[in-house]
């Protein structure tokens, strides 16, 4: 794998606001409690990254210094603030105007209950988050900051789960800002939605999207040794069932996997694309090879779709350790039984086996598209469960992320002659309304299909990256969506990119 960090390599800085008004004893208690809270978060199974208490800040200078340090430190993926006491928020303006990392405002208090007999004015002065956090919230609103607000008692599981979810989004932000995408050739001719402004996208999301010649990939494929192929075939035999006698076709995919991985790792890239229209010198369209690379965490997009490829990688990184799997996907065809309408999702070859319900089979079949030899591929069914589909589109002047809630079901049919991996799902609120909404919003035919990420996680990510977010859910209705899209179009034009 390329030099990708794991979630535990990222730190979140817990910064507690106060002031000098209350005397040193109060500040000592605040610091002691804050470090206990940070240590407790750090040890919690819901919290996927490190949490480090970075101090109780009391002045404009301290706040500005800590924000500068957070910006500069590559381990720091975001800051979490909480006002144990009152912290006048004009002190935060200079620091916050410099902040370049994701920001979460945790609104909680150290004690769960009011101590009936003990409460006096000393207690009141120490435990002021109820109004201290309001002063802090105002400056976030006044400065129009992208922020996550989490409200609840700090020991409660829902608070920790939401904090953990937001951290995953923040890691996605860091991954995005460092992501390189290798395009083997261009995108499919005449296709609109796979186009996009790569300069604008790099300014907004950080992605470095560049092209590598297919001829160079072919040279790399030809340089792979028989011993390297033998070793990888061992791994294939351990992980998958072989439902083919055409071993040479499988060996060629192993060659392609090894060659593409070498190039991606050499370039430090986390995602790549190819297209069946640009395979000059390659014997097969990579099928098994692309499925295998996705399984290892690389992003992939077919037909040169670099946006979906990058998002696949980012979502895989964000959801490390969560069950369910994440795959490149395409709505292919529908089953329109009235009231029970379903989508059948698949691709020509390339669906990631992390979403498989059972052990995938390696099969070799002809491919009508691309004019090459029969490619080997993994064939399997996706598993049932709640999931989302994600599409990122370029609206011209801005990016829009569309997320739809879906529910995958056990595929209704066996489909014995369908030679590709497949998932069947119900789109929310129902397929007909959901597809209507998707088309109005301009969602692509390619998506990231993920059981592991949630709509909230993607919404948080979109807010951190400063892009538009549209959610199609069980409560979506067409009339309100049309109004939302119209209003957002005007708002984003006023806002500028
Ligand atoms: Mn496609």
From TrEMBL:
Q: Name one GO biological process term.
A: L-arabinose catabolic process to D-xylulose 5-phosphate
* Superkingdom classification of source: Bacteria
Q: What is its EC number?
A: 5.3.1.4
Q: Which Gene3D superfamilies does the record cross-reference, listed alphabetically?
A: 3.40.50.10940
Which cofactor is recorded for it?
Mn(2+)
Q: Name one GO cellular component term.
A: cytosol
Q: Which InterPro entries does the entry mention? A: Ara_Isoase_C (IPR024664), AraA_central (IPR055390), AraA_N (IPR055389), AraA_N_sf (IPR038583), Fuc/Ara_isomerase_C (IPR004216), Fucose_isomerase_N/cen_sf (IPR009015), Lara_isomerase (IPR003762)
Q: Does the keyword Manganese apply?
A: yes
What function does the entry list?
A: Catalyzes the conversion of L-arabinose to L-ribulose.
Q: PANTHER family, alphabetically?
A: L-ARABINOSE ISOMERASE (PTHR38464:SF1)
Q: According to its UniProt record, which protein family does this protein belong to?
A: Belongs to the arabinose isomerase family.
Q: Would you tell me the protein name for this molecule?
A: L-arabinose isomerase
Task: Please state the gene responsible for encoding this protein.
Answer: araA
């Amino acid at each position: 794998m390329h030099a990708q960090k794991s979630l535990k390599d990222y730190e979140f800085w817990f910064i507690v606001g106060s002031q000098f008004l209350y005397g040193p004893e109060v500040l000592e208690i605040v610091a002691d409690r804050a470090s206990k809270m940070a240590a407790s978060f750090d040890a919690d199974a819901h919290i996927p990254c490190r949490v480090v208490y970075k101090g109780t800040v009391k002045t404009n200078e301290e706040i500005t210094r800590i924000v500068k340090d957070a910006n500069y430190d590559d381990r720091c993926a975001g800051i979490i603030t909480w006002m144990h006491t009152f912290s006048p928020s004009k002190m935060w303006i200079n620091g916050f105007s410099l902040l370049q990392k994701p920001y979460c405002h945790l609104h909680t208090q150290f004690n769960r209950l009011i101590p009936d007999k003990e409460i006096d004015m000393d207690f009141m002065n120490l435990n002021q988050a109820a109004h201290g956090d309001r002063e802090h919230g105002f400056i976030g609103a006044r400065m129009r900051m992208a922020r996550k607000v989490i409200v609840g008692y700090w020991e409660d599981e829902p608070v920790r789960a939401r904090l953990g979810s937001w951290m995953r989004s923040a890691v996605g932000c860091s991954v995005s800002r460092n992501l390189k995408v290798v395009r083997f050739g261009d995108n499919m001719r005449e296709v609109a939605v796979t186009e996009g402004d790569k300069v604008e996208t790099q300014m907004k999301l950080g992605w470095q999207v560049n092209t590598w010649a297919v001829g160079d990939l072919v040279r790399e494929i030809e340089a792979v040794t028989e011993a390297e192929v033998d070793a990888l075939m061992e791994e294939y035999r351990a992980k998958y069932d072989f439902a083919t006698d055409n071993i040479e076709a499988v060996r060629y995919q192993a060659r392609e996997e090894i060659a593409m991985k070498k190039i991606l790792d050499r370039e430090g890239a986390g995602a790549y694309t190819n297209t069946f229209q640009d395979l000059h010198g390659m014997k097969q369209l990579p099928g098994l090879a692309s499925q295998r690379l996705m399984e290892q965490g690389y992003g992939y997009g077919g037909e040169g779709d670099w946006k979906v490829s990058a998002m696949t990688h980012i979502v895989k990184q964000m959801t490390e350790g969560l069950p369910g799997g994440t795959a490149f996907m395409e709505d292919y065809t529908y089953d329109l039984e009235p009231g029970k309408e379903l989508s059948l999702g698949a691709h020509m070859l390339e669906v990631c086996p992390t979403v498989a319900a059972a052990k995938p089979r390696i099969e070799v079949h002809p491919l009508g598209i691309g004019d090459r030899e029969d490619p080997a591929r993994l064939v399997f069914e996706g598993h049932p469960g709640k999931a989302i589909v994600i599409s990122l589109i370029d609206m011209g002047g801005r990016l829009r992320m569309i997320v739809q809630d879906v529910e995958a079901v056990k595929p209704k049919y066996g489909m014995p002659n369908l030679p590709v991996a497949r998932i069947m799902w119900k789109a929310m609120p129902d397929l007909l309304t959901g597809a209507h909404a998707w088309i109005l919003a301009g969602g692509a035919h390619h998506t990231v299909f993920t059981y592991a990420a949630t709509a909230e996680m993607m919404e948080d990510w979109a807010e951190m990256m400063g892009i538009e977010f549209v959610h199609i859910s069980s409560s979506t209705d067409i009339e309100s969506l049309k109004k939302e899209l119209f209003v957002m179009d005007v708002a984003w034009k006023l806002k500028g990119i």
